[in-house]
Write a structure and sequence with these properties.
Tetracycline Repressor, domain 2; Arc Repressor Mutant, subunit A; mainly alpha; single chain; 14 helices; elongated
């Protein structure tokens, strides 16, 4: 058998030496495959009734969302792959475009799930505080007590239930590298909490809620919570903590509460009541 020139394949030799009809047939085959693939992509939701071999649609969607919490939390939107997400959820990779339109759609669904479940633990507290502020004037001491209540809730939601390795990381990344999803996070959760905090701090600091200093100091106070996410490893080693269990969370709540107490002006020394 004659040897092929170095670097040449059988297909290349056949193409170069083949007849015009054979070449045209190959070109038509390639073109038809491309058009077929394009047709499938454009009509995927119509043609594929159920890409899953097991589990119901509802179960598959939920498992993908739960997988998204873990995978997006670890690798972020850009770093996560559809293969990782599908394997973690135990579903066919085709389920992601089928149910969510793609990886970005799944990410938005994960954000919405977070807001519905985790945000639902914080927003009622903020709304309750707003109601307490309506119709009467709070004293600085009362306002600060409500700040402590709000922060205690946020700390609990952010740090308990292994959140630091899942959805809380997504929130931190959205602050640092916002995607389109941050509009949803801001309007449905962050803005309401931030404005409630500003309203309370304005009473404590005897300023207006719209005062930039009030807003900046409120943001700085929120940072005292976020540092326990971004700086978790440092405090874990300093205190020999394995994780943020309930007892550790209570200690963090106490430490932040004591920091908040420093906002109240001190009574002049020597002053008697």
């Amino acid at each position: 058998m004659a040897k092929l020139p170095r670097g040449r394949s059988i297909v290349q030799e056949a193409w170069n030496g083949g007849c015009r009809e054979w070449k045209r047939g190959c070109q038509d085959l390639i073109r038809s495959n491309y058009l077929f693939d394009l047709f499938i992509r454009m009509n995927y939701s119509t043609l594929v009734i159920d890409p899953l071999s097991t589990a119901s649609a509802l179960d598959a969607k939920q498992r993908l969302i739960e997988a998204g919490l873990e995978i997006f939390g670890a690798f972020n939107l850009e770093g996560a792959t559809t293969r990782q997400l599908a394997e973690r959820a135990g579903v066919n990779q085709a389920a992601i475009p089928y149910y969510f339109g793609g990886k970005e759609g799944l990410y938005l669904a994960v954000i919405q799930y977070m807001l519905e479940h985790k945000g639902a633990q914080v927003l009622p507290v903020a709304e309750e505080i707003r109601r307490e502020m309506t119709g009467r004037e709070l004293t600085p001491v009362e306002a600060l007590a409500l700040v402590r209540k709000l922060f205690s809730t946020i700390v609990s939601v952010l740090l308990e239930d292994q959140a630091t390795t899942t959805w809380a990381r997504i929130i931190v990344r959205e602050q640092m590298q916002p995607t389109k999803a941050f509009d949803l996070v801001y309007e449905r959760l962050v803005r309401h909490v931030h404005e409630t905090l500003s309203a309370l701090l304005a009473i404590v600091l005897r300023r207006k809620p719209s005062d930039p200093i009030v807003i900046l100091r409120g943001h700085a106070l929120v940072g005292q919570i976020m540092i326990f996410l971004s700086g978790r490893e440092t405090i874990r080693r300093r205190l020999n903590w394995k994780k943020y269990a309930a007892s550790e969370v209570r200690q963090i709540q106490q430490a932040i509460g004591e920091q908040l107490d420093l906002l109240l002006p001190r009574e002049p020394e020597g002053k008697t009541s």
